[in-house]
Design a protein that fits this description.
By secondary structure, the chain is mainly α. It has one domain: Sodium/glucose cotransporter.
Length: 476
């Protein structure tokens, strides 16, 4: 009990320090509580440092730390290494277009290119469904599981999840994207430092020796029976990263909130450097060490290793870092969800005048409630990261095809885009729920190719005049 009191006290102290520093940084900087730009793009005032920090920590959360280490093999590092492809397309292709069209949400680009508010609204609904049923509940489950394992307490997972929701949602509700991005960066420094320290301590715990660990756990070239066969690295994985980093509102919103395009691109480059040099060992080595020490224990691996190698006072610090990762990732999703609802749905279909703060609060509370109801579903899964990545294709490939088509071509039809998105989601659902003849990442590639050909063909049929390649002018 005494150890728990020490851990928890340090955890609370560090968490409060992050909250205070975030408040002091944001105090007096807000321009208008009724401004979409203020609440959802931080008044377009973020420097490259906060863009890089927010991009890094929005993605680096318990899904990665718990889920990837839960696979207990080196192969999962490819998810982080190949993310650089997504960063490249974000910096060089998508950001110049978003800035040129002065977009508040990524979906706003669709309305302007397809000349229809309906395709924008449909994609916004898909994003919201993904946040409710995939990203928020998986984040809450992995965060609660880690806390339970680290502190070695018998507190129910749902109670821990409720606490995470209350604290995490407060940043988004009361501070908007500015508070989210600032807290991301501050807590990111702590999390990256502690996670790297965990790598060193875990290696020291096995005397830096991987003897006795099966080769299949250490190789970076997966065979057909592995979670990531080598051939998926050049198929669906590439497309998944382009979707995630370039069109996903939760992530892309950070880069769109920079002062200028160049500032945003600098932040993306800095985030990509961190992604290559720092993140891969953090998300695989502790899990491999756990396999040598405890065997195949799945998603419990990371929490068990951390609990075993850290003294009580440091485990409290690390718990604060993990909690910060959960809070910032959680409130990032809430903030982007609120921006999607306000900008893409409420203002387009209900009223152009909306109390942004009230709408943000209402949407956040509804999503929090729905996410909590889904936590027990994820608690019964064998591997949380594999499940999340597999479900990812329900949204990612149909939506990506719609974005790519409108960027490449002029005069694309909104009707074609809407049909494509619905058909593509049903096609991929057929793969994962009825018949999967190949790896799910190959299914993503097939889904994308079918969707792209479908939207082009339908647009051609609906538009008698042949469409031409779009001419995208650079944004200064």
């Amino acid at each position: 009990m005494a150890n728990f009191i020490i851990q928890f006290s340090i955890f609370l102290f560090i968490s409060c320090i992050i909250a205070v520093f975030t408040y002091l940084k944001c105090k007096g900087m807000r321009k208008s509580e009724q401004s979409n730009s203020e609440y959802f793009l931080a008044g377009k005032s973020l420097s490259w440092f906060f863009v890089a920090g927010s991009l890094t920590l929005t993605n680096l959360n318990t899904d990665q730390l718990v889920g990837m280490n839960g696979n207990q093999m080196a192969l999962l590092a490819w998810w982080e290494l190949s993310a650089v492809i997504g960063f490249f397309f974000l910096a060089k292709v998508f950001l110049p277009i978003y800035y040129k069209h002065e977009c508040t949400t990524t979906t706003e680009l669709l309305e302007k290119r397809y000349r229809s508010k309906h395709i924008r609204a449909l994609i916004a609904v898909f994003f919201l469904l993904g946040n409710i049923f995939i990203f928020l509940p998986s984040l809450l489950y992995t965060g609660a599981l880690f806390m339970q394992t680290l502190f070695k307490v018998q507190i129910p997972l749902m109670l821990i999840a409720v606490i995470l929701v209350i604290v995490g949602a407060s940043y988004s509700i009361f501070g908007g994207l500015r508070a989210v991005a600032v807290s991301d960066s501050y807590s990111g420094i702590l999390l990256l430092g502690m996670a790297a320290f965990i790598v060193v301590l875990s290696l020291n715990a096995i005397d830096y020796s991987f003897q006795g660990i099966p080769e299949s756990r250490l190789t970076l070239i997966g065979d057909d029976n592995s979670p990531l066969p080598w051939h998926v690295l050049v198929s669906g994985m590439v497309l998944a990263h382009i979707y995630y980093w370039c069109t996903n509102q939760t992530v892309t919103q950070r880069a769109m909130a920079a002062k200028t395009l160049k500032e945003a691109q600098k932040g993306v480059v800095a985030a990509s450097v961190l992604r290559i040099l720092v993140i891969p060992p953090i998300v695989v080595i502790p899990g491999i060490v756990a396999f040598k020490l405890y065997g195949d224990i799945g998603d419990d691996a990371y929490g068990k290793v951390v609990s075993a190698i850290l003294p009580d006072y440091l485990s409290g610090v690390f718990a604060a870092a993990i909690a910060a990762a959960v809070f910032t990732s959680f409130n990032s999703i809430l903030n982007s969800s609120a921006s999607l609802y306000v900008c893409d749905l409420h203002e387009r279909y209900i009223s152009p005048k909306v109390n942004v703060k009230q709408a943000n609060t209402a949407v956040s509370l509804i999503l929090c409630g729905c996410a909590l109801l889904m936590v027990p579903v994820y608690a019964g899964t064998e591997s949380i990261i594999n499940l999340v990545q597999e479900l990812f294709g329900l949204l990612s490939m149909p939506i990506l095809s719609v974005f790519i088509a409108c960027i490449l071509f002029d005069k694309m039809r909104a009707e074609a885009a809407m049909i494509t998105v619905v058909f593509g989601s049903l096609l991929y659902a057929g793969f994962i729920f009825l018949w999967m003849p190949f790896h799910y990442l190959h299914a993503m590639l097939v889904t994308f190719m079918v969707c792209f050909m479908l939207i082009v063909s339908l647009s051609k049929a609906l538009n008698k005049k042949a469409f031409t390649f779009a001419k995208q002018k650079s944004h200064s």
